[in-house]
Amino acid sequence: MKSFNKINIAIRKLLALAVLVFSLSACHKDLGNYDIDMPVDPQVTSLDTLYTATVGDSLKIDPKVKGPSGAQLELSWKISVMEGTDVTYVGPVMKIIFGLQAQRYSGLLTVHNKTNGMKYFHKFMVQGATEFNAGTSILSVENGVTQFSFLKPDGTLQARLYKAMQGKDLPPNPTNLFLLRNKNTGGTLLGYWIITKNAGIRLQSNTMMEEEKYPQTLKDNFFTPPDNLEVGSVVAHSQGVMMGVINGKFYGGTTSTWDQAATYGMFGLPAEGDYELAPSFAMAETGPGTYFIVFDKNKRQFQRINLYGAPAYFGTQYSVSSTTIFDPMNVGMDLVKLIQLNNADCFAYMKHTDGKIYELKFNVQFTGPFTFTPQHKREFIRQDLITADTKWQGAKNGVIYIASGNKVVIYNPINQEVRDVTTNFGGKSITMLKLSEDEKTLMVGTEGTIWFTNINTGEYGSFIKKIEGIPGNPMDMAIR
């Protein structure tokens, strides 16, 4: 037994000695005298970050790839499709027929060095496009028939495009043409809406065909469609939805879901309350939120609506600084037009029982505290300009453009100056009045023509150019 213990102890000593020797050898200084043969990266040039591909046409991407001597390189390509099958291709030059939709896609070029097994990745983007990717859409009325036309950048006018593509007429009595964009997601296009007095049609922005994924008509854009539709007026919100007065109630397109969802922009229930609104209203998108100034045509009072996810009706839940000038809760007149300039000064043009038009100026703070400040009430200086067909556009520089009959004037409400624009419109009645997005150009529509006039600083509507050959009277337009 003692002999066995001695052997066991000896074995343990030998094992401990071996571990010590191994540990000491591991601590030996690494002099780093190695010959490291790092693989040489293939050089990729002439690969752009963004390619534009016309739907139905060929897409060719031909980069220059130079590999190390003796390397066998293979190039593979992938265009990722969110809804559908990815596009894949193998070869030194990607050449395909682009059959995807007119959207933006992520692309990936993989350079595989089959000699050493290394792979190298290069990203790019592909923007699908159609012949409608840029140009001007025009809404007009020709002998009582609503027409939708498209002007290409080269000046070619595709008149009566909707009828040619769909084989049917649009609803009558058109009022607005919107190209909706969600500015919160970088300007994502959400389609065209053609709005008429009692209906509306939605078109895909890149094909001009009626939408298949989304509601095609204004009535279908309601979760619970009303029996009848009477559009007072609607506007485009920056999130790419419509908001406004329909059937005397206030509706707002839903933004509580992904903007590519089929329900995005649909109308739920109207803002709940006991009211019936006049068509004209003002929308202000401010830092704290969005609010609306509306007018109840039965109670003849200004009311407040705030956007809290969905429009919420607050009626006259606001304080009034003074009712000496006028009482916003008891105006006693009918609203003709309501304009707000720079999310600040508001001008309401009211028709008295004696037939005269009065101008009411006021300010509101409807994002808290909720206050209404009347500033003046006076007879409008040019009663002759106000008719049922008068067109209005309020500008950020504080002036109001008014079209009446065959003339357009610039009205300055500060000093009540009224100045004719410089351009002569040939004596034809004005049917459209629209500001460019930067408010440097005023577009004026007459029968068969849209006039572009310069209203930049120091200019008073001098002629720039015109679009001719429009079928009928222009009503609205959208530039893409």
TrEMBL record:
Keywords: Signal
Range of residues in the leader sequence: 1-28
SUPFAM superfamilies assigned to the protein according to its UniProt record, in alphabetical order: Tricorn protease N-terminal domain
Record has Signal as a keyword: yes
Domain of life from the UniProt record: Bacteria
Pfam families: PKD_2
Keyword hit for Metal-binding: no
Protein name listed in UniProt: Uncharacterized protein
Organism ancestry: Bacteria, Pseudomonadati, Bacteroidota, Sphingobacteriia, Sphingobacteriales
